Input
Amino acid sequence: MTEERKPGLLDRALRLFTEVRAGEGANVLILAANVFLLLTAYYVLKPLRDGLILSEQGPAVKAYMAAAMAFVLVPVIGAYGKLADRLPRRRLINLVTAFFAVCCVAFYVVAEAGVEIGIPFFIWLGIFNAMIIAQFWGFANDLYTNEAGERLFPIVQVGGAAGAIVGAGAVKQMIGPLGLTTPMLVAGGILLASLLLTNWVDRRERRRTEATGAPDEGTARSPAATGEFRLDTGEFKDLRRLLEERRDEEAPEEAGEAKPTEPEPDRQGAFALVLRTRYLLLIAILILLLNWVNTNGEALLGFLVEGAAREAAGSGLTGEALEQYVGTFVGAFYADFFTIVNTLTFVLQFFVVSRVIKYFGVHVGIMVLPAIALGSYGLIALIPILSYVRWAKTAENATDYSLQNTVQQALFLPTTREQKYKAKQVTDAFSKRIGDSLSGVVTFVVVTFLGTNIRYFALLNVILVVVWLIVAFRIGREYRQLIATGRPPLTRPGR
Output
């Protein structure tokens, strides 16, 4: 009889934040450090993007490029899916991440040669942010069972929250002495460093969960996008074989009687995979609505802040002096706003998120943010004043960056490996950009024809949030069913 492994000091220390079992602490911290580096790299690059496109092209072009990213993502996601069909997960992540690191060097060289890179760099960074984070969470979902992922993802997400803060603070110190191009090399180096952690945790997890399996059947050699899914034991099961076994078990004894049939999974493109899988399509719609509502809210807040700045300036300032005052007022407001949001995000991520998931479940957690948003925008429609909108958006953003982000990633725990690596690029990258684009169109229409009346934005968001709540409820119900049955969502076969 083997002696049960006892939790180490690290495992016990992490139990302050969530339930960590023996041997889990080291790997979950490596994953947290991994996403910390990815988010640090992104937030080093993000201010460079804004500085380059605003200085070279102006704010109007920036708005157009944000909409263009959604269309550029279509062929990029298709190409990523083909790579996932052919490469094991570690080679896939190494290749894609190394490509983005090389791009950082290429942009630096071209910019130093005097070429304007504002537009291509803006589009590239939007693709980078969407794809590299979706890839990381696909990998994290691939490592854990449903039960383990629900417990440990709150700790992993802490790394992302910390990376955002560190990256933004670091680039602020670099831009002054180094300009807008040299920090690109720093970000590229950070991306390469993240690969060391990816490969490290991949080897550790394979030794833990695949030591007894055949080498050709493990994740080290099989493509990332397979029809396999993890059982509660940690082992992988092929969905096609599972359906065949169940058909054999349920086959009628009478000769000649037809066997019951179930749809079988077939390898297909990322977009087709989402469109033919109801559960994944609902997730894509949820993320679209979330970003549409959030971006509308950011526009709403921006109008109020600018109006408050001009009101505070009074009639004594005009021209350049007025614009300088407004810029200083707005900058100070957002600096304070994001400081409070980031602080609240950390508190929620450390002490609240894991407990919400443990005691109420992912299916309840996915409805918390739209419930907050419904109350916030409903009251904003009645009381559209800056002080209230500020705290409503603080609560919304902090919940989005902590609880919502964590449960949103957990939704992919019961999916197949193909769905984790291919479909997640559609739901997390493409749907997000479509939501941003729809918000841009709405902002243009409202401002052009109705003016900057805050109530219009708030009332539109109330309608969108009601739809969002319905979608979140359906996703939560399907998630519970998938966890209970231990089977991933089925994809309708293509013609």
